[in-house]
Amino acid sequence: MRRMVLSILVENTAGVLSRVAGLFSRRGYNIDSLTVGETENPAISRMTVMVHGDDQILEQIEKQLQKLEDVIEIKELTRDESVTRELILVKVNAAGEERQAIISIADIFRAKIVDVAPDSLMIELTGNQDKIDAFIKLLEQYQIKELVRTGITGLTRGLGDIADYIED
Fold first, then answer.
1. What confidence tens digit (pLDDT) does each residue in 109-160 have?
2. Rounded Cα–Cα distance for residues 17 and 10 (Å)
3. Residue where a domain terminates, one of 48, 76, 104
4. Which of 82, 67, 30 is nearest to 52 (CA)?
5. 57 with 93, same domain?
6. Do residue 94 and residue 118 come from a single domain?
7. Has residue 163 been placed in a domain?
8. Contact indicator for 108, 123 with CB cutoff of 8 Å
């Protein structure tokens, strides 16, 4: 099984997210991560989708996505040719002596303390998936109260813009 991250430019219209997600569910494919947001052009949104599968399944996913009317372009975000990031917020029990140890871990990862309560800290961290996973693993020795991950988003390296896909 191989991981594939797709950057999909779509028309920013009502129902496009539902149509893309519906394609996956109708065919029994699981979406590991999905982020969507408007691009620098308000008429176009970018979806970043992470899926796992064998080469045949991943090829089929790309072909089916390309058939959707709202899809403008699909690019695979490979590790060598792209930058991907994810954001997490994690609330950790932090009473007494544990507080300073948790702050030290956050500092090592260049995370930000975004909320302080008498018995907990909320920490924000942005990075690649490996960095996020390593951070969570270190925090597991403390009690994690809540955790949320945004999902992966990314862009290909180098020059490029969406102007080529906009009709006048």
1. 999 999 999 999 999 999 999 999 999 999 999 999 999 999 999 999 987 6
2. 9
3. 76
4. 30
5. no
6. yes
7. no
8. no
